[in-house]
Amino acid sequence: MLRRGDARADVMEAPHVTLEDLTPVRKRLQVEISATDVQAELERAFATVGRQARLRGFRPGRVPRPVLERTFGEQVRREVLGKLVEASLRQAIEAHHLEPVGTPDIDADPLTPGQSLRYAATIDVRPVIEVGNLDGLDVRRPAVVVTDESVETALAKMRDAAAQLRPITDRAVVEAGDVVTVDLTSRLEGAEPVRREGVLVEAGAGTFPLALERQLVGQHSGAELTLQVPYPRDYPNAGLAGKTPEFEVAIRELRSKELPALDDDFARDHGRCQSLAELRTRVRSDLEREAEARATDTMHEAVLDQLFARHPFDVPPTLVERRVEAQLGTLGVREGADHQHALDELRAELRPRAERQVRAELLLDAVASRLDITVDESEIEAAIETLAARESHGAERLRALYRRPEAHAALHAKLVRDRALARLVGEDRAGARSVPALARVDIAREK
């Protein structure tokens, strides 16, 4: 049938276009294509079909037009409609210097031979952000303090991870601190049930009052339970925060933890250090690095808050909804008519965070353009290698991922935004030589 490129809608005369501003980031284009162009495209399409059609009783290329109309007319008109809309919309967008994001919403009249074609296209566009004053950002970096207690807590977790598990044979009742092997099926409205077998759970170790781990204390080996677990509203996982999933739990085995001694042997066997003192030093260094990263994140968020206040703009709804759907995907949530209400509630909870992320990216893109911030190919390759070094088995697969144009472009955009943010808080050393520094950025450290 009609192949892409057979109809030459790209050489038609410019369509008549009316632009309507619905919001600063949403536009409606009213487009009219002349009857002459519509008929010309139909003629070209049917000529192509006539050359290609193979119908019983007719020689190739000799099928009468009325037969082609009856046999292929609906499909030809549908394909010509798509071709005309695609080509004319591209012309309209270029003529009005729009930068669309997402897929346009098209409302088109049926294609009628001999008549003009009218349609409306509603599209979201990238906002025009005029970057104003970037000087004098007042950012207080949180103090970074790693206490001896924090170091000992980290060492205790290392001991716990290295513990030997011994079967409990003298009792069947679960006590706090036991490591319980369970089979779990979790059910949450808005998501598919998830079953996991052989899960290790430390009884009593839950971080909130009715955590599943706490509800296991006092139960018996072999018991099959149905537990309701109300997660706190501030729970880090947005998909569970404020929800009460149901867990079907089968208790299979009880074991106790036998902790290794915290000594030089432990440091050599589990910490890749020659002594316990060296391990403590390394743990403290790791904790300080993590605390510095959190302090940097806090400082960056404060910078963004001030940038948002200085540069208000509308965020394209299409980009926000795309980010929400991506977050739903990471939570394993799927569409379903039987839990649509819960799914809509979850979307509403995720939307503010998604909008902030999109707003930050759009604004940092504008800031990077204002400051002429660039990232060259060698820096992108270095970033890929850094990511690959963290992958013990999937390094080559990750490299292959970033050879794909869309993934490569996404990484480039992230690096540019990171550099723009670093420039604003005075952390960007690489670009300081080629781009003039901002007049003044106040960085104060909390005492």
Please describe what this structure looks like.
With 447 residues, the chain is of the alpha+beta class. The chain folds into three domains: 9-125, Alpha-Beta Plaits, CATH 3.30.70.1050; 164-258, Chitinase A, domain 3 (Roll), CATH 3.10.50; 270-445, Trigger factor, C-terminal domain (Trigger factor, domain 2, Orthogonal Bundle), CATH 1.10.3120.10. Helix content is 44%, strand content 18%. The chain contains eleven helices and eleven strands. Strands 6, 7, 8, 9 and 10 form a five-stranded antiparallel sheet that branches. A four-stranded antiparallel sheet has the order 1-2-4-3. It has a two-stranded parallel sheet with strand order 5-11. The termini are far apart.
